[in-house]
Specification:
8 helices, Ribosomal Protein S5, domain 2, Alpha-Beta Plaits, 2 domains, alpha+beta
Length: 281
């Protein structure tokens, strides 16, 4: 019997992009990316309660986000519509991951909703089917459903799984919400990085093609990244920002840098995960 039930707190972990290249753009405007996704042990938490009235209700709305636009609600309704399930659910979200932080928080929440309710409602959809549903909600949703640290390509639908070494990450959170659409819509964005194979991704000198745009338009990202690179030269922005991070082989090294953070900069430590906590459900 599964340990996951209606009383469970379901994790929705953050991700880091260990590199991110924009390698092209489709005719429909979607960007073609190559990146390595790494799950970390900092997570939002979700809880669900069954409803007999067929309604999907978010009991803990995020200020400024309309319920109909919230990814958790959209994910639940999409699964309900696809599966034909007649009952509903109340969703309780404990939000830790920042909005517009480049850590995939909203996408991870949506993925956990699909995984959890597919299990709790016993709708029986395969992971591959959930991934396809997730892609209609956002490009990062499928990787959280896929559940493995992976080299991802395309618009978020093609994966080559990786075994990544244990690592600790120091993450800094600039107090700014960076809209993904602003970064990808910038005319100066580099869109022609050479394609790589999964074996050739740049472990030692990673680059994020979105970083220059985010830094130019959001000075707080530049400030935080500049401070972090004084202590970890290969520090990187995650996703489209705003969060920046540095990788350490030893947790003690990350903690030593964390203790040096000046007042006004928010940071925290996270360990890399070998896979998503729900990957084997």
């Amino acid at each position: 019997m599964s340990i996951w039930n209606w009383q469970s707190n379901w994790p929705a972990p953050a991700k880091l992009n260990l590199f991110l290249h924009v390698v092209g753009r489709r005719a429909d405007g979607y960007h073609l990316l190559q990146t390595v996704f790494r799950f970390i042990d900092r997570a939002d938490r979700l809880r669900f309660a069954p409803r007999s009235d067929g309604q999907i209700v978010l009991a803990t709305p995020i200020p400024g986000v309309a319920e109909d636009a919230d990814l958790t609600v959209r994910a639940a309704r999409l699964l309900q519509q696809t599966s034909g399930y007649r009952h509903g659910a109340t969703i309780y979200l404990s939000k830790i991951l920042p909005l517009g932080g480049g850590l995939g928080g909203g996408s991870s929440d949506a993925a956990t909703v699909l995984i959890a309710l597919n299990h709790l409602w016993q709708t029986g959809l395969a992971r591959s089917e959930l991934e396809k549903l997730g892609l209609t909600l956002g490009a990062d949703v499928p990787v959280f459903i896929h559940g493995r640290n992976t080299f991802a390509e395309g618009v978020g639908e093609s994966f080559s799984d990786l075994t990544l070494a244990a690592a600790t990450y120091l993450v800094l959170h600039p107090p700014v919400n960076v809209p993904t659409a602003v970064i990808f819509g910038a005319p100066e964005l580099k869109r022609d990085s050479p394609r790589l194979t999964p074996a050739d991704w740049p472990h030692d000198h990673p680059r994020n093609d979105l970083e220059a745009v985010a830094c130019a338009r959001f000075p707080l990202v530049t400030e935080h990244l500049g401070w972090l690179r004084q202590h970890a030269p290969h520090a990187l922005m995650s996703g489209s920002g705003a969060c920046v991070f540095a990788t350490f082989e030893q947790r003690a090294e990350a903690l030593a840098v964390l203790r040096k953070i000046p007042a006004g900069i928010k940071g925290w430590i996270a360990d890399g995960l070998p896979s998503h906590p729900l990957s084997d459900l």
